[in-house]
Prior knowledge:
The protein is an alpha+beta fold. It is built from 4 helices and 5 strands.
Amino acid sequence: MADEGIKFTDEKCFTRDQVEHLFLSVDWVSGKYPERLYKALMGSSTVFSAWDGDRLVGLVRVLDDTSMMAYMHYVLVDPKYQGRGIAGHMVEMVKQRYADYFYIEVMPEESKNATFYQKHGFEIMPDGVAMQICNG
């Protein structure tokens, strides 16, 4: 259960500066490219965000193919607000929004975060392996 003072929305009502501040609060390199990050979020299929008044404190981004697969990316919460159930609540919002899809996937950047997703019903793919090309 998320903190009662936190409000959640799927409206992309955040500013570039708010996004930059949130991403830098967790030391994510994306925050160093605020224009590109903001553009990417605005072009995403779904963005759920968490707010404490007018302060952006959490965000989940989803990319989907409109029918079969949704990929959850950028699950983050400002360190000052972690431990209040905010990330879990946003993940549950994603699961509800995409309940009719065949797959909801996530690739945790760090293996230590796998248990968080397992608590929310995600399973490690039996023979899966994460792969990427980094052009940055």
